[in-house]
Amino acid sequence: MARHGAWKLCLPLVLAAAGLLAQPLVVKDEDGRPVAGAKVEVLWYGEGGLFSLLTPAHLAGWTDEEGRWPHQVPVGVRGMLLVDHPHFPPLLLPLDKLSDRQLVLRRRSWQGRIAGKPAAGGGRACLVATLALGEETRRLRRCALVDEEGAFALPQLPLPADLRLVVPGFATWQGKLEQWPDEPWQLAPGFSLAGEVRDCNGEPLEGVRLSWQGGEEESWSDGSFLLGLSQLPAELRVSPPVGEATSVTVTGDEQAPLILRLACPPLVRATLLSPAGAFDGVVTAVLTPSPCAEGCSTEAREVRVRQGELRLLLPEAGGYELELLPSGFAPLKFIAEARAGEPVNLGVVPLEVGARVAGSVVDAASGLPLAGATVEAVAVGAQGYLSLRGAARYATVSNGEGQFLLGGLPRARYLVKVTAPQRAAVYRLVSLAEDKAVSLGRMALGEGVVVSGQVADAFERPMEGVELRLRDPACEFPESLAQTTADEQGRFRLPPLAPGRYRLEVWQQDQLLLGQERLLRRAEELALLTTGVELSGTVSENGVLLPGVDLLFSSLVGAWEQRAVLQLRTEKGTLLWNPRAWSARASVGEDGRFRLAGVPPGPVRVSLFRAGVERARPLAVPAARQAEVSLELGGEVLQGRVVASPSAERPWLWLRDATGFLLAGGAVASDGSFVLEGLPAGSATLELSGRSGTLLRVALELPREEELTLVPPGKVPGGLLRLAFLRREEPVRGLEVVFFPEGAQQPSLARMVTGAELTLPELPTGPGVVAWYEPLSGVASRSVQIREGSQELSVSLPVGADLSLHCSAPHCAGSAVEELHLICPEGLDLAPLLSGWRANTRLDEDGRLSLGRVAPGRWRLSLRFGGHSYERTLHVTEGEAAELVFP
Predict the structure, then answer these.
(1) Strand bridging mode 57-62 / 246-250
(2) Are 865 and 848 in contact (CB under 8 A)?
(3) Which of 18, 263, 318, 748 is 20 to 30 A distant from 635 in Cα terms?
């Protein structure tokens, strides 16, 4: 298993399937003796977006008594291999330079000496350096004893490095070493203090920082320490890894050794047993405070487990949701209540392989097995982004027979990618709903096919600089599988692709111009025409043209006005999940006309923001190359006054029609007055809101002759709904959740589930519908009754089904989809939650379209394309693919 990872198809190295690749990796010293206990890490990187950059694929393990490493090394990828052992300098190799399966650690050391003779033996010299490992870094530490003559030998680390010398009879020296010195090291006279740090049970504490004026030291693995103080008495500050620091005054009259007793740290202990015996390896521990108050954070750390014994220090006493991710085994989840001085003992914990994928990798031409092929699995949907906070990337490498087993996968839906040198990558979407193996069978990797062509707009004008992105058919994975940019003639050429079904998208900056599924069997020359409509027309208010204003067009195809967005900020950039809504701005000229190209056919929201007030209208865009519209933004006027505000803030007003469509919005003036203009007649709901939430809701009819007086009570009475989504009694994260009040067709609230539960606040009392999308179970909904106060809803997620449609009529081939509605049992349209439905979508050349996953149950699907409308009732069965056939 690997924590983080990315992919890349590189071609620098081609090796035979047997021979060198089938041999295990062995670490020896320069005399040919095996080196046991060396940590070997392999990281490989790849192309792609920020998600790939932040998740290098990672394999790690320790050599056994014969110096053997238990993993295969990936072949033909860009990455690094690091061998780290406390008695040798580190060995760092680019993977494409690895030509021998025997790695030799050489004893390059710095022969140092202090000027003067130590008062006694037992001094210590330590070097600490930082080593760059691709995009990541590793902190390396080497220590050696100083003998009675003042000599020591330290394995060399990359310079500059931090040096610390602690020698009896001298003051501790610490500083940065820029080069290897030849002269003896000059130390100032001092007073030595030896001792031990132990907890309340007498157990040694490692890594306790002891600092004083002029120096610091850490306790060693056995809890012992040696300090060189420049003067006495001295104030010694003792800082354990967990817990509060204490101070001790050292006078020199203490008994030697000085025993420092500290409180027992809060910790978790367990004995991990694999099917082969005591587990020895890396465990990633993910800690979340329980209960998780607003603003609480999750912490992930690596723990080295030897002979099955896990010892995990906790940040502080208290409750925790603890998830243990042993390398190659199924995740373990516990609720731990830690108290100071009382370790949480989980006892003997058996490890299971859990959900896994298995298969074999062969060369498509010869049928011979491919060793060293990389197999990587990444959770799809928002779960892929959320996995960055913990154990994200799972990876393994095929063995000498081309076989692989990637275990320890949490139950979810994954994109599995298999790559080998000089061959096109193969992708598979798999659903792991149970703790058992899913066989991918025989994966044949070949040279692939090259797809090229030209992209043009609806008038066949070449489009320069647009980006071509290759996606999985239903766009379940957050990022593209491959991408390229069209040249000045609109021409493009994609990297070699394995034959299969893909979604090909054309993007111009942040706008999706075309999304079309393609079955690619052979090299093809594609002529792509973008779907967007060239929209032009006039804008008027009460019949008078409005020159010089700016309009915002937002597609309602595949999106709502309310949409959850997951944002993960990192040092290298920000990851966004679900920025799928299409929007663009157009300026109205002095003649009152506007023009906007690339508008998706279907429903569009047009809004105008002027004088602090926003007005909006729905617009139906036909599937045509060009369309002329006349936008009338005039209408009724609603004015009134807010009598009192609960705070100094200026509240906002939002006016929605009976379906939940936002008609207008704006801030209340400083004197409490407000005016909303250009409103359509009919039933509407006016909401008054502030920073603290919704303050008032008022139902009204337009037109309204008299002014409206609003007296906010402080906060509108409403309900609070706590949602928990479970799969086999375990919390599921990464769901997009929306809430519909009674009668609304637009959700009033949208959230992303990032923790064990989700709270929806300030819901209007009465009937409502909660709807969601989760990659494994699909789109689903549930009726709820909201009461004042707090209520809870726990949902057990089933396994959904892949939904697709096929129209064999001639007019369907390549047709733009103008409308698509997925009606749930509650009568709401949940099509925007489908991963494969978005603006500017076309059927493929065979009239097919993959839409994503839906939950089991009864659904109604209606759509319009090629000038025809269709409607079907759909009964979805758990785990079975559902295809709708038209006409």
Answers:
(1) unpaired
(2) no
(3) 748
What does the block give as tokens for 485? 């940019």
Q: Is the pLDDT of residue 350 over 80?
A: yes
Cα separation, 28 vs 31, whole angstroms = 8
Residue 714 DSSP class: S
Give just the sign of the alpha carbon dihedral 774, 777, 780, 784.
negative
Task: Please give the share of the chain, as a percent, with pLDDT higher than 90.
Answer: 53
SS3 316: coil
User: In the 8-state DSSP scheme, what is residue 189?
Assistant: B
CA dist list (Å): 379 to 272, 362, 385, 388, 585: 26, 25, 8, 10, 35
Q: What is the pLDDT of residue 276?
A: 85
Token couple for 677: 């203009």
For residue 612, which of 538, 666, 651, 544 has the smallest C-alpha distance? 666
d(CA 431, CA 412): 6
Q: 150 near 118, Cβ under 8 Å?
A: yes
Amino acid at 189: P
Give residue-wise pLDDT tens across range 431-443: 999 888 899 999 9
Residue 17 has pLDDT above 90, yes or no: no
pLDDT band for 716, please (50, 70, 90 cuts).
Answer: low
Q: Which residues contact 603 (CB under 8 A, 6 or more apart)?
A: 555, 556, 557, 618, 619, 620, 621, 819
Place of tokens 């021979």: 19
Q: How far apart are CA 773 and CA 692, in angstroms?
A: 28
Q: Are 26 and 83 in contact (CB under 8 A)?
A: no
Q: What is the DSSP letter of 387?
A: G
Which residue, among 276, 282, 278, has the nearest Cα to 42 in the 3D structure? 282
What does the pLDDT look like over 554-597, one tens digit per residue? 998 877 888 888 887 777 777 788 777 889 999 999 998 999 99
Q: Confidence class of residue 552 from pLDDT cuts 50, 70 and 90?
A: very high
**Rg of the Cα trace of the chain?**
33
Q: What's the residue count for the chain?
A: 887
Please check whether residue 231 is in contact with residue 253, taking contact to mean a CB–CB distance below 8 angstroms: no
Judging by beta carbons within 10 Å of its beta carbon (0-12, 13-18, 19+), is residue 28 exposed, middle or buried?
middle
Six token digits for residue 321: 């949701």
Residue 251 has a CB neighbour count (10 Å cut-off) of: 8
Whole-angstrom Cα distance, residue 189 to residue 193?
13
Is residue 377 within 8 Å of 55, Cβ to Cβ?
no
Q: For 434-455, what is the mean pLDDT?
A: 92
Alpha carbon distances (Å) from 787 to 352, 635, 767, 792: 44, 36, 9, 11
Contacts 24+ apart (CB under 8 A), 384-388: 384/51, 384/415, 384/477, 384/478, 384/734, 385/51, 385/478, 385/566, 385/568, 385/575, 385/577, 385/734, 386/566, 386/733, 386/734, 386/754, 388/4, 388/51, 388/54, 388/55, 388/568, 388/570, 388/575
CA dihedral 568, 573, 576, 580 (to 10 degrees): 170
Residue bearing tokens 């595949």 = 558
CA angle 422, 427, 433 (to 5 degrees): 145
Percentages helix, strand, coil for the chain, rounded to the nearest 5? 0, 55, 45
Beta strands in 48-90, from DSSP E residues, in sequence order? 57-62, 68-69, 78-84
- Smallest CA-to-CA distance from 608 within 599, 617, 600 is with 617
Q: What is the mean pLDDT of residues 324-352?
A: 86
DSSP code string of 449-469 = B-EEEEEE-TT--B-TTPEEE
Task: Please give the Cα distance from 304 to 282 (Å, whole number).
Answer: 5
Q: How far apart are CA 389 and CA 734, in angstroms?
A: 12
Q: Which two tokens stand for residue 424?
A: 């096109």
| pLDDT average, residue stretch 746-764 | 89
